[in-house]
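Lecture 7 notes: from sequence to structure.
We start with the chain below.
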Amino acid sequence: MALLSRNASRRELPYWLIAAVLLAVAFGLVIFSSAGYAVIFSAVASGIGVTVFVTIIAYSLACLLGLGVAMAQLSHHRVLRQMAIFYVEIIRGVPLLVLLFYMAFVAAPALVALWNILTTPLQSLGLVEPALVRDFSLMWRAVVSLVIAYSAFLAEIFRAGLQSVDHGQIEAAKALGLSRWPVFRLIILPQAFRTVLPPLGNDFVSMIKDSSLVSVLGVQDVTQLGKVYSSGTFLFFETYNVVAYVYLLMTVSLSLGVRSLERRLQRYREETGGGA
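Predicted structure tokens for the same chain:
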């Protein structure tokens, strides 16, 4: 019965994808055939690079920080474990927009002031220039905010993946004489990575959408450029149609990639007996 349902789902045509592609093609034809839409698209498209850059850098750093926090949550040291749990619970309870404002207008000036205090002797010798708040660019403040916010959610994903590895394999590896780091690198991490890869892909798609919030700090991404253009021309309907179209192109393309990756992982598990 399960085999028949899987075969039926494979034969089912992705009508939603066909409709999405037709809609994207139709709106693309409107954009490139209309002089007004073409101008708007050229004005907004210059922010795609900033959106992609912020997303990739922030997500990569968030994955590293999230993995570290997840490992701390599973640590045998009580203080480290409690600190990691405290970090996750506090960060997950703060809205991303509030975190952006806090990092931009509270944490950044505090970090600059702390840096100036710590480097006062070097500044008196002329070895270090005093830091200014404006030296900490708004784009990097936004990146740090996204890293902190997403690392808390990614930590829970990594923690679940690490705990999904069969404990018997870990004990067998230790019995063979492997130390803690080789066990983690060769046994735990590869299996956990296969488990968490689909949710990691989904969170990456979510970060592309959430990266639009950096526009509140004036970062010149797609949303900010659309906001600036529409406020100057009052073409709000046309401009935000284009903005939505650009984000949909990015997110739907990545969603299809994630779905394809999930199917590949599922086939691999079935072939190797892991899905039994």
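Points to note: The mean pLDDT is 84. The first helix runs from residue 2 to 11.
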